[in-house]
Amino acid sequence: MLSTQQHALVAAVSALDVQQVEQLLQQGTDPNFIIDAETGPLISLWSDTVFAWWEQVCEAYESGQPLSQDEKAQLLKPYMQILEALIQAKVNLHLWDAEEIYGPLWDVASAACVPAVERLLAEKVDPNTKDEDDLTVLSSISQLLFECDFDEIDWSQALEEEKQVLELLRAHGAKMSKELN
To answer: What predicted TM-score, i.e. pTM, was given to this entire model?
Structure first.
């Protein structure tokens, strides 16, 4: 059962209420708790919210009016501010979701969120963690986005953000599953 402060922190993260998140963390609310069996840890809730940002970016591409870099950065700002507040409060970035399938690095990489991937990699989140199917983050995201492994991707079919995320993972030592087996 969550405390009143934990409930408030969950609500603040869900609402992207940066000020409330920062205030609760400054009051000493520990961000390392499991919300429930379905959601998992708070960091998973945060990383799941990044998909809303990616949906906005994709909708703009689909409408033929892609967002500028500044527009994308502005939309992403509260997500990154919350991530930074959680990191400063010593959130465990190495936790995986309730099903032990995806961690925050996988989530933000699948949302093609370059700044969040960069930040997690800077915190030494392992890009070679494997999921329940024995796939590394690089192989799993490549399969998700392109239905093939990283070395088989037709980059002409990729959005710039997708390419940047996968190349960023690779530049930080991410391997394909077949390279580790």
So the answer is: 0.93
How far apart are the C-alpha atoms of 118 and 75, rounded to whole Å?
17
Closest residue by Cα to residue 129 from 105, 157, 109: 105
Q: How far are the Cα atoms of 10, 38, 59, 100, 165 from residue 41, in angstroms, in the given order?
A: 10, 10, 29, 11, 24
8 A C-beta contact, residue 72 and residue 109: no
Number of Cβ within a 10 Å radius of residue 5: 14
pLDDT tens, position by position, for the chain (181 residues)?
899 999 999 999 999 999 999 999 999 999 999 898 788 899 999 999 999 999 999 999 999 999 999 999 999 999 999 999 999 999 999 876 545 557 899 999 999 999 999 999 999 999 998 887 888 999 999 999 999 999 999 999 999 999 999 999 999 999 999 998 7
Instruction: Check if the beta carbon of residue 175 is closer than 8 Å to that of residue 128.
Output: yes
Residue 54 makes CB contacts below 8 A (sequence gap 6+) with 111, 112, 113
Q: Decide: 81 and 48 in contact? Cβ < 8 Å.
A: no
Determine the residue type at 135. L
